[in-house]
Amino acid sequence: MTTNGGFQPVFCTIVPPHVLDKLARNEDPALSRPARRSLEHDAYQRTHRRLTTVIGAPAVAAPAGAVADQPHRTIYDAGHQQDLPGTKVREEGAEPGADATVNRAYTGLGATFELYLKAYGRNSIDGEGLPLDATVHFGEGYDNAFWNGEQMVFGDGDNEIFLDFTIPVDVIGHELTHGVTQHTANLAYFGQSGALNESVSDVFGSLIKQYALGQSAAEADWLIGAGLLAPRVTGTALRSMKAPGTAYDDDVLGKDPQPATMEDYVRTGRDNGGVHINSGIPNHAFYLVATAIGGNAWERAGQIWYDVLTGGELKQDAEFTDFATLTVQAARERYGSGDELQAVQKAWEQVGVRTL
């Protein structure tokens, strides 16, 4: 349950609109047409979500017979149409089928559920066993994945710039974490609070990947969306938490615009005030905390971030300073004045965010 009032209409995509805007203006129809269709899909879904949302989170109970503390996953196939959810193709407990996209979506939902349950004792997205629904093969060459407030949706990509959006498990974890944020702090999706919303999803998306792979903070690549970019793209991922601004530098996509510190903070009216851009700053702060503490990042560093997200003190319109201050408090309350607290304080200082 959120302590911050009614739930806002939520529509969060993994690929920023400014990236699709650039592709839509490309002279090559193989690049521009899928991007335009994707932007049209996103605009429709965003408007639909806003018009159909009522006050309060969607109340979806686990079905009769569902096992407590176990995921309840259902995968649907949109058949390259835009109608949701589509045709049911796999449900909880069913064996893998021939469609690799369906299987990856199912596995990714499970990996997300497991990280939240095993690391933080959270039973699904809402903490109360919310069923996890996902639709694959959405639209024609759809260049995105999104959480619409109730379920996950994955496009197949255009195979020119983007591949299948179920390939990176951190993309799945990222989008589902928007649901966790929706049910907890409910951070407003604009400006610094929106950048925090995106950053929290990147943080836990990365932790879900690290947990699934059994990687320590030192072993992790700290990339978001590795494996998503097609071979023709000069880049490794959508974003880098280790080195924001270095994920790609491509003649079609342009250069990764994320800053790592407040010195390069981007002021813009696009992308809801740069939510996918300035999220690089708190992303980098978490990377610095996790690597300074060492070990498994989902343990102490992740626990601090989770405590802040779910603690009830994070305001909907929180700015970076507010979030940073709460992480310092959470580190002190849980771990005292040891290495964890010092790592948190130093990380925010390094990225230029002050704490109160």
TrEMBL record:
Cofactor(s) named in the record: Zn(2+)
Its EC number(s): 3.4.24.-
Entries under InterPro entries matching the protein: Metalloprotease_M4, Peptidase_M4, Peptidase_M4/M1_CTD_sf, Peptidase_M4_C_domain, Peptidase_M4_domain
UniProt region (Disordered), positions on chain: 78-97
Molecular function (Gene Ontology), one example: metal ion binding
Entry function: Extracellular zinc metalloprotease.
Entry protein name: Neutral metalloproteinase
Native species: Streptomyces diastatochromogenes
